[in-house]
């Protein structure tokens, strides 16, 4: 059975449709209206081996905040739906990703308790068309709506592009590890509670 889901969400600020396939090979079609954000989501999908179709119409004439945050909400909801009851998943995942001088760790638990712990220091400003404050907003929305505990920690780096690219790739790789099916679990939920 394919672990795939489509979520559509329309507000006065954004109109978003997202499809994810957790058992894909990293194919991505991303159009958010913010080129650098598209680049980051494409990298996350490729390195997470998650097929993603992300189509967003947002009020980017105001700024990118609603587009970026709402995209995180919808991707998170799609991941949660695709996971279903989470039976048989590995649950935990982590990855260190170097990107030239930058080094970022992402570690996560598909716990059902959505939260972000962010230790990334970048200056206020823009990278491409993305406000640097918005990467954190994306990951908050993603973690909350996917029901994952996500730690993103910068260990080195000066170039904002490199830091963010390492963060998105690390998150993708950690997700890939955590959503993987563990045959040894024989379809059981990986929790002493019996549910996640």
What does this structure look like?
- With 196 residues, this protein is of the alpha+beta class.
- The chain has a single domain, classed as Imidazole glycerol phosphate dehydratase, domain 1 (Ribosomal Protein S5, domain 2), CATH 3.30.230.40.
- 34% of the residues lie in helices and 31% in strands.
- The protein has four helices and ten strands, in the order E-E-E-H-E-H-E-E-E-E-E-H-E-H.
- The strands form three sheets. The protein has a four-stranded mixed β-sheet with strand order 1-2-4-3, with helices on one face. A four-stranded mixed β-sheet has the order 5-6-10-7.
- A hairpin with a 2-residue loop joins strand 5 (92-99) and strand 6 (102-109).
- Helix 2 packs parallel to helix 3.
- It is globular, with a radius of gyration of 16 Å.
- The two termini are 20 Å apart.
Jot down its keywords:
196 residues; alpha+beta; Ribosomal Protein S5, domain 2; four-stranded mixed sheet
